[in-house]
Amino acid sequence: MFSKLQFSKAALTALAGVSVLALAACSGAAAPAESTSAAGSATDAITVYNAQHESLTQAWVDEFTKETGIKVTVRNGDDLELSNQIIAEGAKSPADVFLTENSPAMTQVENAGLFADISAKVQEQVPAEYRPSTNKWAGIAARSTVFAYDTTKLKADQLPKSLMDLADPAWKGRWAASPSGADFQAIVSAMLELEGEDATLSWLKSMKENFKAYKGNSTAMKAVNAGEVEGAVIYHYYWFGDQNKTGENSKNVAMHYFKNEDPGAFVSISGGGVLASSQHQDNASKFLEYVTGKAGQTILQTGTSFEYPVGSGVAANEKLTPLADLQAPKIDPAKLNSAKVTELMTQAGLL
Amino acid sequence: MTSEHSTTADGAPGATISPSAAGGRGSRLGPRPVVVLCLLIAAFSLLPLGFVVVATANAGWDTVVKLVFRPRVGELLFNTLSLVLVTVPLCVVLGIGGAWLVERTRLAGHKAWAVLLAAPLAIPAFVNSYAWVSAIPSLGGIFGGVLISVLSYFPLVYIPVAAVLSRLDPALEQSAASLGLGPWRVFYRVVLPQLRLAAAGGALLVALHLLAEYGAFAMIAFDTFTTAIYDQYRSTFNGAAANMLASVLVLFCLLLLVAESKSRGSARYARVGAGVQSNPTRLALGMWQLPGQLALVALTVLAFGVPLWHVGRWLLAGGSEIWVRDDLLTALLQTLGYGLAGAALTTVLAFPLAYLVVRHPGPFSKVLEAVNYISSSMPGIVVALALVTITVHNVPAIYQTSVVLVAAYALLFMPRALVNLRAGLAQVPRELDEAAQALGKPPLIAFLRVTLRLSAPAAAGGAALVFLGIVNELTATLLLAPNGTRTLATAFWSLSSEIDYMGAAPYALLMIVLSAPMTYLLFVQSKKAAGQ
């Protein structure tokens, strides 16, 4: 009994020690959040709700903090998850800046009246075609829809002429997509805008019969490479990104651009905006100015994201097909309706 | 007396112990502060269930019909049901088979095998999935889902069954043999029925894990209710469709609880009579030695070897470049911080509940237990969805703070602490406490000096298991963590979803390294509780 008591005492001391350590760790973790609530100084930290690729935004944040000394806390999520979260948080949202991969989520926040105007400098840096006429947000990058296909299975003349063709029963079981992702939902929103609700719903229902679902565009491309499906509707940069690493997941894959102003030639604009509720308007604007400025856009050109720059006259990475050659359909980003897309996709059984 | 079923691997909600050991007087509910505390904890743990009920009621019947009675829900139902119906029996067969080989046969090296069969628990299911997808890129569908889950979860059956097998009274088997039954029929008619409680408890745990798992299935594109709820969350934050799917999932969990409690039956398993039971006998394997060894080698290679091999392969391929010191250190520290805070809070909250159940058994403590049993079966995604919605609308002061995340961990992992504490408290004679009081110590001091101290090892064991759960938790962490948080699990997840398998490898390794000692502790504890 004596030795047991001794042991329990040791265990109890250990437990107490553990609690103290844990509390210390927690208060450490909470520290950056507290510092954001302090008002005033030019080095005030900002919070970015980020739906862009984590690695790209991290590159922006690291450079920005190095240049300005302003600390940035990042919350990562998906376009529509974060836009809906910002709307649910309302005026109390901790977010100062919102970055997305596609514009429907920006439009949603804009329609909820939660964005402040972008600064004159941002307007100057981003050409009018890459920002809405309301100037509530600005394009920060762009990406093109592609049909990534297995070169061992499909020849050039067997490729679909239009994205709409993939609804054909001939394509049953042969193609893939990531319907739960914001990227694919943005492509559908373009289709909705170009072809109308009835055509889109019927296409989605055929898609449900024909396609194979994957989580994430990378995984869909990997499936094409592994021969599970013949092609996948994704964005262009996944292929370049993988080629830049080991190329292991894209060695049998080539990209087909639909062009011809097809819904499948949709070029999606990634957006950035400053929240009206932000307590750090100046620093938030500085961040957006940095991202759309020469330095921020050059990270798109020279980095490993392989997205298209849209601001400050920075050219795309030379490996990419120039944006001007893609014959994308002309679409006003403000008209892309994400809520309707989610509803139609839920109705078609894709979500 | 040792409790019948307090040894379940993972804080089985199905575990029950006989409280009469403590000789309680059932008429009083217990000390008032403890009762109030317990009521508060119970109310808190019913939040997720309440949220689902309210959300369903608020949505209105038309929305419910539109969002629940649709083909997609049918598909998810089919996937989830077939996953449970195929995986659970396979886990039971592997778990019982492995335990029997290790505990009751003259298997060469049975001591080493006993540990090795529990080892796959140290590999989080989503790391297992990552390894298998690296090995077979086309892995997916129900086959993939079953493969990953069986390999990840069979130890949940193996551990409690092995613990029971190692202390079965051989007298019953000897009687059966003397009455003319051969070894196989003895196993089937005498041994197997006595494993029912442990196997059913383990099977329930496996089933609940299957319903709650997100990462492992998302990685191989196999859709269950949980993955579909997360997809809806990603498109709508907290839309009606996600809530409706959550209520169907909750219904599913409740049905499982009922099924498990029915399968327990009413037979008595305790040994009655004077004298000490002898050690179980071991069956000679003879010509079956080699096939037995081969089967165990195959199982261990698939469940443990494959994940380790592929994590190692990606580590080698990545070289020194993937060891980004600052990122790894931050993730490690945050994981440790949340793990320790969660384990401490959960253990503290479990104390009053365990105390009432053991020292004041009666209808009230039964209800408390039942509440805990139900709330513990809620998947992480449901708990997170409930807490995020409630805090953003009603309690903005704690919204997106570590407080909410730690509270969610306490909700999710309370049974792990509770089961251990219950067993520990039941073994502290209340007479010691009374003696201290008789010697002039006030009740609280007597409790602190005697009961608390003696139950500390059990509390530490429970806390370790909670810690293990938190290290590998993904969905609640993704939804509830404060801005800027990056744990090992979420960092691993974000890298591996971008198919940066090399970058994800160090995180996978760290999770395995953190989990390994906890798994070993769990294994040792189950043996100890079984009286070895």
TrEMBL record, chain A:
Amino-acid positions noted as binding Fe cation in the UniProt annotation, renumbered to this chain: 53, 101, 237-238
Single GO term (MF): metal ion binding
Signal peptide: 1-24
Any single Gene Ontology cellular-component annotation: outer membrane-bounded periplasmic space
SUPFAM superfamilies in UniProt: Periplasmic binding protein-like II (SSF53850)
Keywords associated with the record: Ion transport, Iron, Iron transport, Metal-binding, Signal, Transport
Gene3D superfamilies the UniProt entry points to: Periplasmic binding protein-like II (3.40.190.10)
Keyword Nucleotidyltransferase: no
Pfam families: SBP_bac_6
GO biological process, one term: iron ion transport
Signal recorded as keyword: yes
UniProt record similarity statement: Belongs to the bacterial solute-binding protein 1 family.
PANTHER family with a match to the protein in the record: IRON-UTILIZATION PERIPLASMIC PROTEIN, THIAMINE-BINDING PERIPLASMIC PROTEIN-RELATED
Protein name: Iron ABC transporter substrate-binding protein
Automatic annotation (TrEMBL), chain B:
Primary residence: membrane
SUPFAM superfamilies: MetI-like
Location of the protein in the cell: Cell inner membrane; Cell membrane
Similarity comment: family membership: Belongs to the binding-protein-dependent transport system permease family.
Residue intervals passing through the bilayer: 34-56, 76-101, 113-133, 139-165, 197-220, 240-259, 294-316, 336-358, 370-391, 397-414, 458-481, 501-523
Domain of life: Bacteria
Organism whose genome encodes this protein: Arthrobacter glacialis
Gene Ontology CC annotation, any one: plasma membrane
Residues in ABC transmembrane type-1 domain copies: 77-258, 332-522
Classification via Pfam families: BPD_transp_1 (PF00528)
InterPro entries xrefs: MetI-like, MetI-like_sf
Keyword Zinc: no
Region of interest (Disordered), ranges: 1-27
Organism placement in taxonomy: Bacteria, Bacillati, Actinomycetota, Actinomycetes, Micrococcales
Lipid bilayer topology: Multi-pass membrane protein
The protein's name in its UniProt record: Iron ABC transporter permease
Sorted UniProt keywords: Cell inner membrane, Cell membrane, Membrane, Transmembrane, Transmembrane helix, Transport
Biological process (GO), any one: transmembrane transport
